[in-house]
Amino acid sequence: MGAAAEESLGYNLRLGYSLVVCCLLVAGYRFPQLRSGGKMEKTKGSDVYKLVVAILASVVAGFIGSILTRSAASNWYPTLIKPYFIPPDWLFAPVRIPLYFLMGIAAALVWRRGFHHQVVRRALAWFGGQLILTALWPFFFFGLKSPMAGLIEIAALGITLILTIRSFLQVSRTAGLLLIPYFLWVTFATGLSLTIWYLNC
Description:
Layout (H helix, E strand, L loop, with lengths): L2 H24 L8 E2 L2 E2 L3 H25 L1 H6 L16 H20 L6 H26 L3 H25 L1 H6 L1 H21 L1
Antiparallel strand pairs: 1-2
Helix pairs in contact: 1-4, 2-4, 2-5, 5-6, 6-8
């Protein structure tokens, strides 16, 4: 598949996923309402707001670094020796987008429990930390043109993600489980980073 075709496919997939999310929101998608003493604890509007903010934050964190380091990714990355099991470049976007949606949904599930709870604040703080590390990885790998820096950074991301999952599970079992697919992806990406570093050191 040519570069133009890959770029077009990535764009169409991103557009398609975005339209799906918009349709869900317009149709009135919401979480099951929490109840406390027989009274609604959160309104539908508040739940949707938290869902939208959490998903947008996850998607932006996931793609901002890649967008800003596109030049290095296009010029330097193809010169690296890569392992035989690395997926094709066009596959990364359609895999990552649903993972970011799941991350956003997980964060919204935790957030809706009430930011006044210390366990919620701690869980969201870990989530924010792993979002920052997610956003920074392209700068370490592509921006610095350093597989070693990328490996160290993604290892830190994996540790932070484990702590995030543990914190989420204390608030919502569903939220914690929704982060498992991203953890598996980061684990795979760590293996790729380690192999790329070894092949090019």
